[in-house]
Design goal:
Elements lengths: L1 H45 L22 H4 L10 H18 L6 H10 L3 H9 L9 H15 L2 H9 L9 H14 L1
Helix pairs in contact: 3-6, 7-8
Length: about 190
């Protein structure tokens, strides 16, 4: 019995050490990714004429783009996210775009940044399932992602929301009625 407790303790210590090493390695990879992105962005902003014309022109007076470590730690979007979680993530992503001035980059790089924040399943879904034109802006891509997520949602949940809809205090009746009609069309 004592021998088994010692073995269990040794295994738990080993597992904790392996988890710590994995976290440390993840932090190092994230730091390297931030460095590479920052170098890529600074080169792009410093040499606006070098990018091909199809990727989009950089403004005549380029703005310095800086990926601060706090902005780069934006949570990734999981394929198991609900519409509510997607909405919260989209709000955070808009803040990230504003902080890092991502919109000053060519569209190809903007989409690469978006893709880096998605898990593997979302990346595959975006590539093969969601119908988005190659020249689509970030907001169009996000709208298409939300529409796909909405289409995956169970109709029973929509119906429950419809029947449990209540006019909020201070909300005009016309606005409430329009929201109910819109929700009804989605069912």
């Amino acid at each position: 019995m004592e021998n088994q407790v010692e073995q269990l303790t040794a295994l738990l210590v080993q597992q904790a050490e392996m988890a710590r090493q994995a976290q440390e390695e993840s932090r190092r990879r994230e730091g390297r990714l931030n460095d590479v992105l920052e170098q890529l962005i600074s080169r792009q902003v410093g040499n606006p004429g070098r990018e091909d014309s199809q990727a989009g022109a950089v403004e005549a007076t380029p703005q310095h783009v800086k990926f601060s470590p706090s902005a780069a730690l934006t949570p990734h979007l999981s394929s198991s996210a609900s519409l509510r979680e997607f909405d919260a993530w989209r709000h955070k992503f808009r803040g990230y775009v504003a902080l890092t001035k991502v919109t000053s980059l060519p569209l190809v790089q903007q989409k690469a940044i978006l893709t880096s924040m998605l898990d593997d399943e979302w990346t595959r879904t975006l590539r093969y399932v969601v119908d988005v034109a190659d020249g689509a802006q970030l907001e169009e891509v996000l709208d298409a992602m939300e529409a796909h997520l909405r289409g995956q949602r169970n109709v029973i949940v929509d119906r429950r929301e419809f029947y449990s809809g209540v006019q909020q205090q201070g909300e005009a009746f016309d606005d409430f009625l329009c929201a109910i009609k819109e929700m009804r069309m989605q069912i």
